[in-house]
Amino acid sequence: MKILLVYPKYPDTFWGFKYALKFISKKASLPPLGLLTIASMLPAEWEKRLVDINVNPLKDKDLLWADYVFISAMSIQKESVKTGISRCKAIGDKIVAGGPLFTATHEEFEGDVNHFVLDEAEITLSPFLKDLEKGSAKHIYTSKQRPDIT
After folding, report:
1. What is the CA 46 to chain-centroid distance, rounded?
2. How many distinct structural domains can be found in the chain?
3. Looking at the domain assignment, is residue 126 inside a domain?
């Protein structure tokens, strides 16, 4: 299985700190920790690639390579998410979406996203992966349970 993990672009706002990044020779202020956590939870034998659109553009060759595109986003990244989903759909990639944006507003993306893994991935990703292996993945995975972080 080939998984492309995509972190959408932050818009150019004061809170994106783009104006300050040049002073510290960085392209992004925040690493995509959620997607990196997801990558660590995927089966070791799966191939994985990460594209942080804040650092490098999303290329068609990346989308063509993937069996599934995993997208995680915050609300501020919504416009970039819409663009990314359109590109995935045009190529025919299956989309798995999670993170704060989709947990809060997944209804807005119905018909565009194949699978939603909502709330805390430490809880909801494992059932999705088990069902995916069996060929019976559901559309939405959600839970009110929270992971133990103590």
Report:
1. 16
2. 1
3. yes
